[in-house]
User: Fold these one by one.
Assistant:
Number 1:
Amino acid sequence: MPIALQGEITIVRARIATVEPSEGGVVLRIDGRRYEFPDAWALPGLVDAHAHIVGLGIAQREAYLRGAQSKDECIERVGAMLSRRGDWIVARGWNHELWSPPQFPTAADLDAIFADVPVALTRVDGHALWVNSRALDIAGISETTSSPPGGAILRSDDGKPSGILLDTAMEFVERHIPPLTATDVEEAILAATDLCSRAGLTEIHDMDVDPTNLPIFTNLAEAGKLRCRVLSWVRGQHRQWHRAGILPTVGQLHRVVGIKLFADGALGSRGAALLDPYFDDPTTSGLLLLDRDDMISHIESALEDGFTSIAVHAIGDRAVRTVLDAFEEIRLRYPNSDDVRLRIEHSQVVHPNDLLRYVQVGAIASVQPIHCTSDATMATRRLGMRTQHAYRWRSFLECGVVLCAGSDFPVESHDPLLGIEAFCRRTPPHSQNPWHPEESISRRDALDAYTIAAHRAADTNYRRGRILPGMDADITIFDRNLETCHDSEITQARTFATVVGGTLYMHK
Ligand SMILES: [Zn+2]
């Protein structure tokens, strides 16, 4: 049965009461009031299953370096915005893979323009920090500072810190950057959820949430100000949720459902943990940030605290295998844990022997289709022949793995249409040719990944993800049929309106 429909949908007290298909457009009756959308099509509300809401809101305000074609362009953009936190200049989004040559920048590049103020610029994937000498001084990082476990201080030929910090080494500097104020965070959440709503999203799975931000989400939800439902997976790498005393919560617009852990870093900075060394740097196979036993003990504490979902970031095939090992042990120790959703965020490089293990341990693959098309060139450099094991969407579905989708915004655009297109066409920007087209998926499977499967990943599929009587009234109304339109039309679709729990938001 198709999931896009035209006809009359009656909504009573936040739920869908009746659905009467008919041609010509969509009519909504919400608690007695009638709204007409001629020629439009309704889809179950789209979900972004992996995103960073505060990050997107802040990116609207602070210099954002995504897409910058050179380090000079980054430095220019930073100079133009001068986005500050206290004395610090901060920004994010640079990607040296887009530059020629694709080399990490250095502190000296920044020192030439910013000699006296500390500068900290986060890489697009959040796994590397580019700082100037002033920032290195403030953080006390010198020639004699050794790299921390799970991180690296990169050095130039003379042995001095080069100005690039990877993964846990970033914390040396980050702890000196003044935090955002509660007002900054509130404004960021409102800006981000408004953008998402206009792009057709009705629900966001917010990952790696800072525990101090949770009350701000709750207050906004209770005041009816969130235009999308928000589900939070709280930061857990150092048991932050536990130390902050965070427990699961229930609510219509905001719920705290799980914790988020990191098994490794990212491919771009060679922090993703691979089973074999990197193709373009045989001296390293990446970093595992948590081993199996630590992962198990974190997950056990989260389950004891009553959380029903565990999301673990794993990009490299070694990290994915380690997470599967941990999940397998959790399922053995908790034989009645069927209602616990175990998710592997990104699931980018998966060894063939591990595909079926997702099904065996009940792990959900949470992927970001635009990562594949944006990173195809870089992934080829990093992985060589192993790219055939990367971004294996169709293989997941053929094995029966639940595949849900998100954008990882602000790492990538929050627009779900870009992700749906990437799922189906798998074609990098500026290229005519699909990349490993054997792993592309059908339109219907792509839409399911943004709807019903995303709800399975949050255990809400019994009440969300389809336009059927009894379901929550979460609906997105587009100007065309996204289930059947030509591939080339997907990203041209316009959102007319979204409905979240029966509340209508008009977008055009
Ligand atoms: Zn993320």
Number 2:
Amino acid sequence: MEHSCEAAVITCIDFRFWKKLIQFLSTQGLESYDLTAMAGGAKNLVDGDTREMVFRQLDICTGKHEIKKVYLINHIDCGAYGGSAAFGSSEKEEIKLTEDLNQAENIIKEKYPSLQTVKLLMEFDQTRVLK
Ligand SMILES: [Zn+2]
């Protein structure tokens, strides 16, 4: 069996979202990927105290499994952010989650310049691919 895969997926542990994520990824034609689930998903790249832990996973994904892409996921009402209530409004929540996805993307591009990135913002009723 081939020992490489297409992508790494960095997502949250939240049970309300990871099953939907796996379904969504299959609709995108993604067949094989390494899955890292940590509370906060992409937030773990933005936070200096957890970034190295994500890098340790990605070093294996790139070194052993020759991934070409990283999927970065954030979701609405994430406990690692204090839930939706912590933001004051859904607009502010979306702005912060999007900012963190953009920052996580920049961090990936700096450390792993050859990798493509895909940013997903998950809501209860939809998953959006961000530009
Ligand atoms: Zn979460």
Number 3:
Amino acid sequence: MPNEDLSNNETLRIIESRRSIRAFTKQNVPDEILRILLKAANEAPSAHNQQPWRFFVLRGRKKEDLAHLVNSRSAVFPKPSSTLLRMAARSIMSAPLVIGVANTGELIKHGTNLFKVEKEMAHDFFRTMEIQSSAAAVQNMLLAATSIGLATVWLGILFLIKDDILDFLGEPQGEFMAVVPVGYAERSSRGPQKLPVEIKVKYIAD
Ligand SMILES: Cc1cc2nc3c(=O)[nH]c(=O)nc-3n(C[C@H](O)[C@H](O)[C@H](O)COP(=O)(O)O)c2cc1C
């Protein structure tokens, strides 16, 4: 292992090359590829292995309805939220495929009964665990997409209208996690630069 050449490591290359893409060509994403993305997301680690995520696949008219919903709701927000919502609507419209992600709350129920600690603390803890688990699933999906030449963007701004989104997805009791347009990039992006990792790390040494 210490002598292994990692400069050609495919996983590391994919992690580094993933960038958020917000405009897509009209090229369709076949169902076999969609299944691969969903399976990759579903392979994520999850607290208590509760796999709290649910995925919602939108194409065609339904996907356009979602874009219209986001556009119409954007009007009640001040700038810059209204602008970001309209940008999100444009990405949804442009992508051939959109995947919504919501949590079910099952882990919260399961954990609160299991732990028998103060209810509020248990709720906070397991809600956080659900969110973190689903975030891992979304990232798996983004990386799998990158690895097969697809482009994605994680749309968190829709949290501002999360009740409308959850109603639209038919999961009104769920917790909004993400909406991810998926397709082929209209143009590639090198994305914003990452800060050097050194400034993010503190080595706790003796
Ligand atoms: C939780 C989360 C929410 C995000 N929400 C949005 C969003 O609503 N709209 C958007 O255009 N990009 C969104 N992004 C993408 C970020 O803007 C992007 O990841 C960041 O600028 C770094 O660029 P990169 O993904 O190309 O590395 C989100 C990313 C994450 C992780």
Number 4:
Amino acid sequence: METNLLTSIKSPKDIRNWPVAQLEELAREIRQVIIETTAQTGGHIGASLGAVELAIALHYAYDTPHDKLIWDIGHQAYAHKLLTGRGENFTTLRQLHGLSGFLKRRESDYDVWEAGHASTSLSAAMGIASARDLRHQGYRVVAVIGDGALTAGMAWEAMNQIGQTKTNLVMVVNDNSMSIAPNVGAFSRYLTELRAAPAYTRMKQEVEQLLDSIPVFGGPLRKSAERIKDLLHRAVLPRNVFEELGFKYYGPIDGHNLAELIPVLRNAQLVEGPVVVHAITQKGHGYRPAEERPGEFHGPGPFEIHSGKFIKKTQPRSYSQVFGQTLVELAQEHPEIIAITAAMPDGTKLDLFQKAFPHRFFDVGIAEQHAATFSAGLAVGGMRPVFAVYSTFLQRAYDQVIHDICHQDLPVILGVDRAGLVGGDGATHQGVYDITFLRAIPNMEIAMGKDELELRQLLRAALDIPHPVALRYPRGAGRGVDLNGPLVPIPWGKGEWLAEGEDATIVAIGPMVYPALAARDILAHEGYRIGVVNARFIKPLDTELLRQVTHETAALITLEEHAVAGGFGSAINEWCHDQGLFLPVFNAGLPDEFIDQGSTDYYWNLYELNGEGIARRVRAWLPQEERIKKQIK
Ligand SMILES: Cc1ncc(C[n+]2csc(CCOP(=O)(O)OP(=O)(O)O)c2C)c(N)n1
């Protein structure tokens, strides 16, 4: 398809005098580019197709980048990228060194705010608007937030402040009634009612016009007349929740109708104080398979355009699948098991549990903090809650994990999914900090198996532990190991000494055990004697095993797909120090920097976390004389 209009524009300025029909044609071109590109690269196609007209109308109605446009999460902003000079690089979306799948301040002046996690846009907008007011500047601030993101506490904390301070700010609610899965909760239900009430809006407009037509006079008379109008207004009109909070409300309007959107957005910027524009959109709009299967098309990998079929390599079952299936198995015999997700039933594969035990499954919306404390409450009430959450989103619930779960030493199991590098989603989604932040909490126990079989066995074992447990597992396919045997729990706190080695021993956590074994083989050919330990437990460490190992080896290499700072290696360092052990320890892991999108293979190679890389590090690090001495012996 030709994209003449799109290629003709260098910046949003170029479209600001176009007629609506031309903008509609532009929308068609943008949709086509989004579909063709994501069919190759994968990505957030559904949300982005749903926000094409919103992006055009916002850049049309506002003087961006002077006016500040803030997208919540940033996954729906592909049209925004295409309108702001990134068309040529668009095929690099989500690829190594390519365009980010979210917004990036270093990518464009139009990217005012970076995110990846939900529900930050309103707080950010309030901060930017307050800075503007304090500095007596005149730009406008617009935030676009989805109905899913509006389920999070943060959004309400921001609205609470915005409604009170009455600053000039426009909040566009991009309401498609979907989070990743269908949206949940009482507020979602409320939005549905609001959506279905255009009659309310019409009536409201009519009454408002009527009230405006009442003449007012100057001075004190004017004040009391205004007050009377306000009282009348309240008496005649029901006020919706946004209005109660102090916003002016425009809506619901059709978020795919440019002729409707543009004047409303223009008017909204003329209003004093905060405004809500409630736009009704459809996830996947304009691409039939995404319209029909919005959940699957939230963030798929590559797909066939004509059929909407996903192009998938045959791979072993994913860790999430194994976790979800094992939990279903265990729940058959343990009626006290409850599964909790914060808006990720498909991603965490708790949808399997939802199907099997709908009454013991809770999707609480994008509300990780609430999910953690809700789990704690369930535990106090005698249930066995299992909250499966991506490592990166668990960051949100840190205080709740400390204060509500661990402080009361409650037996909540955290299924820490996507623990490790995540690929295309990049820096905001890497699951590489949780060991550091969980390890510091008293009562917390943390484990990670070397493969999906150990994940099953650890989950079974965790059920018997009367304390909080964080069970980590990576994103993506398992190793394809046989899962058919009986589900035997791993003895709690016990690691596995896989190979002995006098020169040094690699103590690895999680699937890093396998590259450790590969490095051992490579180095064995060169005369090095390298041992390997599958640690399994980060907290408590298997100190008995570590004591035996350190008697038999000259040095330790710790290995983790996690930040070195405060991570698994740090736990080993602390233990060595405590024991007064003076053997050399090298910590292999991830550096102290945010890691952008790119394949895990690429980063394993870059950070020397694959077999070759570890072997290189060991060669460079092991004291040469030691090695020679040992070889002579
Ligand atoms: C704190 C947090 N939890 C979970 C997610 C995963 N996530 C990404 S998009 C999304 C749905 C957002 O729904 P909505 O705001 O309605 O936007 P839509 O995708 O429907 O346009 C979720 C749950 C996230 N980004 N941040």
